Amino acid sequence: MKKSWKLTALFLVWGLAAGMVSPVQTAVNGRLRLAVHSPLLASLISFFTGTLLLILSTLLIERRLSFSRRVITDSPWWLWVGGPLGVIFVTANILLLPLLGAELTVVSVLCGQMLIALIIDHFGWFGVRLHKINRQRLAGIALMILGILLIQHF
Amino acid sequence: MIFFYLIGGLIAGSVIPVQTSINARLGKKVRSPFLASALSFFLGTLVLLLLTLILDHSLGLPLRTFSTSPWWIWTGGMLGVCYLTSNILLLPRLGAALTVVVTLCGQMIMAIAIDQFGWFGVSVHAINLPRLTGILCMLLGIYLIKKF
């Protein structure tokens, strides 16, 4: 029992550390943009090095890079747009950081994230389980927007 | 003007839950979350390669960049992979709500620290009581959405 509590604590610290990595990534990419004089090239270098690391980890962990050809023929086209959507996220973060600062960038991005997550849940898009909007969830979004306004004004 | 930037941030954030849903589905199809991440990053790289060629007309980067810049400017992509992979590994162990809340707390703490001290060349913006209240509102809002 005690051991499993220690394990949970370890996972919580890991989660905290993983979250801390995210604004650092944005700041590091922002600095890369200054060095290469292009936000797109900075995004590209970031994605390219990330791809290399993921190919290596996949080979180490799964010992394969192949998958059934049926995935390509039998799947909906939108299965392949996850990465391109990530491009919008990383590039927008690089562009916004010098304009908004780290806090406001993180906070506005989070608010957009929660808003769309609520809408996806409400309509059950992409095969997600239906979860209707209720008063508490609306209050949550209102609080997040209030938070943005407070941080932006002071 | 700041209004437009904030809208930009909202749009940037709105692609994340869509991406997560799509990549989860891809992970099931190829039977590996790691391979799904690798495919997702690879396709993103291709799109950026095209965009950079079209808009910047070059992929060139002065050799001086390597010698005059700090080494850590090249680590952004790897940091992104750490964040992504940690989320995949923690989700089944902590549950969705706790994973989101704990990684968000980490994000807020680090964002405050970066603005407070002006790390990585970001302009200094000291924390004060109203800003701190704003952060607490955000966390409370996220908690409400995750809980109900």
UniProtKB/TrEMBL annotation, chain A:
The keyword Iron-sulfur does not apply. Keywords: Membrane, Transmembrane, Transmembrane helix. It holds the Pfam family DMT_YdcZ. It comes from the Bacteria. The chain crosses the membrane at residues 36-56, 77-100, 106-126, 138-153. InterPro entries: YdcZ. The keyword Transmembrane helix applies. This is Transporter family-2 protein. It comes from Sporolactobacillus spathodeae. The lineage of its organism: Bacteria, Bacillati, Bacillota, Bacilli, Bacillales.
UniProtKB/TrEMBL annotation, chain B:
Keywords: Membrane, Transmembrane, Transmembrane helix. The chain crosses the membrane at residues 6-22, 34-55, 71-90, 97-114, 126-145. InterPro entries: YdcZ. This is Transporter family-2 protein. It comes from Sporolactobacillus spathodeae.
